[in-house]
Amino acid sequence: MKDSRDSIDFGSMDIPKLFRKLLIPTVMGMVFSAAFVITDGIFVGRGIGSDALAAVNITAPLFLISTGVGLMFGVGASVVASIHLSQGKAKAARINVTQAVVVSSLLLAAYSFFITWYALGVARLLGSSERLLPLAVEYMHWFAPFLPFSALLSSGMFFIRLDGSPNYAMLCNAIPAVINIVLDYVFIFVFGWGMTGAALATSLGYIVGAAMILVYLSDRRRAVRFCRVKLSRKSMRLTLRNVGYMCRLGLSTFLCEGAIATMMFAGNYVFIRHLGEDGVAAFSIACYFFPIIFMVYNAIGQSAQPILSYNFGAGNGVRVRRTFRLALMTAVVLGLAFFGMTALFSHQVVAMFIDSAYPAYDIAVRGLPLFASGFVFFAVNIVAISYFQSVERARPAMLVTVLRGFVFMVACFFGLPLLLGVEGIWLAVPLTEVLTFGVVMAIYGCGRHLALAR
Length: 454
Known about the structure:
By secondary structure, this protein is mainly alpha-helical. It folds into 2 domains: 13-229, no CATH class; 251-454, no CATH class. 84% of the residues lie in helices and 0% in strands. It contains 17 helices and no strands. Helix 2 packs parallel to helix 6 (147-162), helix 7 (166-190) runs antiparallel to helix 8 (194-217) and helix 9 runs antiparallel to helix 10. The longest helix is centred in the middle third of the chain and has 42 residues, at 233-274. The chain is globular, with a radius of gyration of 22 Å.
């Protein structure tokens, strides 16, 4: 069998070439994920009905938590493993990866069992009405038990990219997405299985993706792979210590998932009080659009992460700075491009989701360019958080994430409308990103000043 590593040397390869080899397949993988989210919504809405779509949205926070846990362990373990690899400690890197997969899988198995066993109560806790309750519970029963597989898929791609196989990591995203789309059509439109079919199609896609991760990491020819972990008392203490450190490094990534949920909750609350259901419908288009943009920016950060971590561990500050500057430049260019496209083609973007006859259409067309005005700052902030994580600066990463995703977000959503009316609601997220950008610049400037002082 041909080795699927892509001839990547994090320590010596030309930075732009190395970044491109990681970025292109990572972005493509994210695009497949975005297509999966949108297509899944279309099949559920058109094949089962609007109540089904609402029921799936009710359960969405459960998926965000699961994905957040996977990303947290993926980021934390890959940063630590990158540094070990740069220092020639391959066995330590393998132990970290194994610990991350085992512990996160056990945590999420317990989480999935709880959700499945108490599905009725969890659905009510998430805000389900009695009308939506049967649909939400049916979906959870066929989706929640398989959440550990979705988390393994999220974390495993970090380890595969670290091993130098970004194209295989892309396939781990693409193949589950295609499987889900095909099975969604078959289960919903051909077999008529309703919510059970929708949940099962998604779950089977994640199982295949997770199996691809397990096959790769079980191959003894890989530099980054599973290894046997001792079960002595001393080893368990070391495992707890390592897992705690990984979680501290990756916690800001977990909170990024929570930040998206906070944006949706706060935005819905404010929009419905100013513009009613039409305002919420218009805002939902931005909420569909926003994760796609986030995935692309996240791909930039994930592509830079192994290069940053490896060279940080090797003490090569020049390559760390060059990689960070390249990632920032890429983020700014894409941010400007996304803003330009959204401002010029807002009519076309909105028309993808709703007909122009709906009042929400005009609200969204006017609001989307305002909403998109923060895309450049958003791009820089996401890359900065990834940079802080990659060089083991967990506290700045945490501070930026909490301020951006919770403190600034809530304050702007509730404060700006008092000053600017409806336009203030649309500008709440951009102002959040601008304020966060100011904090990032202050932290980065302070860090450089201290480094020069030494």
